[in-house]
Records
---
Amino acid sequence: MDTKDLGFNTKLIHAGEFNDEFGSATVPIYQTSTFKFKSAQHGADCFAGKSDGYIYTRIGNPTIKAFENNIAELENGYDGIATSSGMAAITSVYMALLGAGSHIVSSDAVYGPARDVLEQDFTRFDVKASFVNTSNIENIKTAIKPNTKVLYIETPANPTMDITDIAACAKIAKDHNLILVVDNTFSSPYLQKPLDLGADVVLHSITKFINGHADIVGGVIVTKYAPIYKKIRHSMVYMGCNMDPHQAFMVIRGVKTLAIRIERAQENAIKVAKFLQAHPKVAWLKYPGLESHPQYELAKTQMKGFGSMMSFGLKGGFEAGKKLMDNVHLAILAVSLGGVETLIQHPASMTHAAVSKENKLAAGITDDLIRFSVGIEDAEDIIADLKHGLEKI
Ligand SMILES: *Cc1c(COP(=O)(O)O)cnc(C)c1O
């Protein structure tokens, strides 16, 4: 079914689906590593790119392709590349777009390992990286060098909730001939469409909102143009970062409810944010949907809604935060985010533990910062849980 001109919710359910010979209503799991060629000539033609046909699951698989087609439509992109994890998406992009002697400018508050792998691994291949607060566009301009190839941003950023102006970055990227890559994990295409705002590549940890049920790890990349797509697909396939057909099946199922999950979670999130902001033991709170957020106006124009992620600090600092984390019962003390269940965690000692203390502080990842991912439970229960936890401090 051609869903190109249909609405977002219809695309969530139907984009990428195909008819199999049995009339299956859902996309079947093609749990196979390899595919039969019709003849020796057909096999040779498939490898030569002269004939359509699946070859081997690391290279391509119908279940995985159905998800890639779905997400490509949701992001208004050229095509999608599904990966084994969000980090596989990130490293495939780095591998495809960077090389010895090249330089990348990145948001300083990015997902911890996305920074660690540049600082600790890509440096061994003479790739240099500058990490700046990309919420201030001037910082990006200052960081660009003659050998800069990629501008990489995450907005809202994990875990500071800082927001970067995607359209302004797209303009800078164009002026300096850079490829703009946006990690859209915190928003999902339901709330934010970076390619429409001028980005060249968008990527996700689908482990989070897109799958939404905390039961698989996965990633995906969508590009706007064919040449970049080909480069990244090559890296993904040759480094073996492919998704598995069963993972693809799970996420095809999960993504169908993306819009209603996000609507419900952000309805809860604004209530939780208001409760926390007004609480006497809370020192500060960052949620893009409150006017107290420094980039509230930008969030309003760039995003369709404010999402369900927030960060906050308590007056008693990390010790108080630890008490809160040990005294909530509904919110699960765990990393990850964007699922139907509410999660709480401490980035400085958990997701961003490998980032040096100095770099963490420079990026605004303070020791007191608690990250909170609001789920789709009843808001009253989430708030009561927090209230109870805060009483123990
Ligand atoms: C979790 C996350 C990643 C990494 O994804 P994995 O699926 O865990 O490999 C990348 N970026 C952001 C913003 C994330 O939250």
---
Amino acid sequence: MPTSKDIDVNKLNFTIGPVQSSEHIRNIGAEQVPYFRTQEFSTLMLENERLMKQLADAEANARVCFITGSGTASMEAVVSNCFTPQDRLLIINGGTFGHRFEELAEIYEIPHTTVHVEMGHKLTKEQLYAFDGQSYSALLVNMHETSTGVLYDMDMIADFCRKNSIFLVVDAISSFLCDSFSMKRWGVSVMIAASQKALACHPGISMITLSSEAVQRITSHNVKCLYLNLNLALSNGERGQTPFTPAISILRQLNARVKDIIASGGVEKEIQRVAALASDFRSRISDLPFSLFPERMSNALTAICPNNVSAYSIFTTLKDEYDIWVCPNGGILADKVLRVGHIGDLSVSDNTRLINALKDMQQRGLL
Ligand SMILES: *Cc1c(COP(=O)(O)O)cnc(C)c1O
């Protein structure tokens, strides 16, 4: 039996999550965990809810549920709590994460139709409007399909949903704080985010921001589950509590991180920072043997197709020989598409280190 060795935590991390956290946030993770059935913790949680609503540009009556679990836990909570077999869902599937919504709809036996988007391509108006006027009750989309880097056109999707009076669920897990987002402007009913992407905290918390319409939908359903029961989360949340022991340290990190973002100029400023890192990286790989993958890219990551070698081999060489993590892909994209994240505590000089490593690999004949 192999025994575990210490994992090197000091590699430069360009993955899409978990990402590098700032020293301030890491230090919170190193502290003792305080008892949480207290007024002090409730105050922190009510502040978390208020700040999350501010960052998501949510309506005044919106609510936020903090789920201890990764992003998929919140995706599952949304599908199981918001929908019943009386609903008809339209699911945008352009890769791994779109497929996850489809799997959930199947497990919970919610009638659904999938709009298949070819990997790496955008959703077109023609594809979407083929479902116009067909009495779907909800549309589910991953604003940024993280497996391919495609950023969907949310203005177009929001117009379609308004026109058809459709409940709009947005998994914004990998686009939140990277690409502009507004619950109010787009009439989003449910928005999902998670701690380990651009929020750059440790993994383990995901957040569901609910419009008042979504809250009503949930309170009128009788969901058959305990841990992901959003009615329980909502009623406990009224006093700043959670039904079960939450990942307290991460909720404290989240509080500090959101305050850091606001103190540094707010959400648009943070988006600009991520966008600047992405455009710096993209401008400096133009003479490397890569082609860019999707038609419409999120600032969160750059997806590249190496012209000459397997994408996965670049991931392995960077990890083992240069102490850099980039993000490989799974399934049919594993050898084709490599992803470089621009989220977390990264700088232009970190980009330089990655570019230099890639240029060195090119000289060695490994690109
Ligand atoms: C990362 C991610 C998720 C959640 O994945 P977990 O591993 O469960 O945190 C969901 N949707 C998208 C678009 C993501 O990028």
